[in-house]
Amino acid sequence: MISNGQNDPSVKGIDISITKLVPRNERTVAKKYRQRIEASLRAVGLIEPLIVFPLNDGYEILDGALRYRILLDLGVESVPCLIHSTRDGFTGNRMVNQLSASQEMRMLRKSLEELDEKTIANALGMQSIGHRLNKGLLDKLHPEAVKAFNANKINLQTAKELINVKPERQLEILQLMESCNDFSTTFARGLVLKTAVAKRAKASSAKTPWTKADEKKSQLLKKLQEAEQQQDFYTGLYRQYTTNLLKLVIYVRSLLNNPEIKSYLQTHHPDLMRTFEEILASTEG
Fold this sequence. Notes:
Layout: E1 12-17, E2 21-23, H1 31-44, E3 50-55, E4 58-63, H2 65-73, E5 78-83, H3 101-111, H4 117-123, H5 130-133, H6 143-150, H7 156-162, H8 167-180, H9 185-193, H10 214-256, H11 259-268, H12 270-284
Parallel strand pairs: 2-4, 3-5
Antiparallel strand pairs: 1-5, 3-4
């Protein structure tokens, strides 16, 4: 399967008169999405060429019909294209994953290292990108929470939940999430709800999780209690396993320290003898 045609050695690039291009399929997209693509084309030009196939006296567009329509409206005369060697075997790259809010925020912050906000906003068809950067959010997070966010352990919504408590409480919540291996926003919100008033951050004008309906609070606290019970269960199970293993090792060692029993096992049950020896070797290794 070819996703865009650019890595196929049988595909070659050429500038083609826009009058010779004919879309294979028309796409119906939201006005906002079209405006964003148009803004990008105006700001940085055509980054990804159209994929076309020779047909009659012109070229059929296999991928890029929307870009073609926008370029046509902009009055562009020729378009960079990649000529594909087959028509029916082509599959356009339609399975593009959308960026999460966290990924978009990191991408924009990275872009600001080389471009100014206005240039980026114009390329994305926006008036401003300030609201997408969540300025000030990271300043309110504990350094460990910032690391977790940058490592994609917690998402943007979880980070927003954490700023409702003081930094030292944020660290405690992160450690609890680590121990339970649960980094979900729901779990974080439950831990925030359980936070003592003294450890909560100063309330802003926006609604905070603990001002929500009592029914919502009860559901979140129930989930938190279930998670704590689950953690206690597995902790107890591990302790019991460790205790039983220790008892087994002591029992096996006492058997093998008895010359008569050891001799009997070697003669009549060599497989069992090897198993006992492996148990001792693994614990002593």
